[in-house]
Request: fold
Amino acid sequence: MAARTRRFRAPGRVNLIGAHVDYHEGPVVAMAIDHEVVVTMRPRDDRRVVVRSDATAGTVVVASDGSDDPAGVAPAWGRLVGGAVRALVESDRPPSGADLRVVSTLTIGGGLSSSAAFEVAVVLALAATAGHELSGLALALAAQRAEHLGSGVPCGIQDQMAAVVGGTFLLDCRTLAVESLPLPDDLAVVVVDSGVSRTLDASPWATRRAETFAAAEALGLRVLRDARPDEVARSPRARHVVDEMARVRAYAAALRAADRAALGTLMLRSHAGSRDDMESSIAELDTLVDCLMEAGAIGARLTGGGFGGCCVALAPTDRADRVARDAAATYAARTGRRARPMVVGPAPGAGELVG
Reply:
């Protein structure tokens, strides 16, 4: 009997608010979006994991027992595969070979968590080959571990949880409690890719993270979630983290109350904090925020870790497409960079595709 082919999907996410707070165990508001990674899996009988991607050149081959060092896998994008294999072996998954084919509608380096979606979909597929199927928190943690092992980036849990949970939600990155939140029907989420690609391991992201933890240590704290505003008033990096946590809580309250004015104001303040205190914005992202507001958005900010990628905005549903197109056109005229505009909707969490 021929081996059964199965397909697994995981969505990307847009971080509506909450920049550089998840690794300090703070709250974030995110939305899983209707752009995704799909992995087609077919079991092998030789204990090798072989992966090909429609978006990236090269074939990845790693041992299914996790013996290959993830950091040494070539081509480089396969390091996350190596990380996923080893993370599953650490969770007692029996070594089983698989052929994986990856298709993605997420822009790599765009700040929409293409890596986390890839990790979650690959972990789902590899776990299924061994009858070691994962769901919920265990799936998110295995995918996060794959990132740590494969890229060396000590990311928080936000992106993997978004891919697993789906929808629009408030995530407490300390307790991992999730609250679904309503997005007003008359508002849509607009995302515009700045055309400046970045990867966290090749950007100043790790430096910013280290600076915030140094500030926490100076206060005798493990993470900045436990810091008071007055304690961080003279430390821009720490001040951003603490202020951003307060903005996230206010944003969640504004969503519950459908307070559109507050939503817009909080997004703009969040971007200002990223620009001025965290210094994780760049000129292109600042320009794109301006273009989105001029085009009719009610609020806009960078999304993801900064230093490139996308901006996110809220716009009236009946004008969202026009806001996205007009902002992209104005941005291109001002910067000479091609922008990719889109209106995104919420997506369900990761799982197997049937039929």
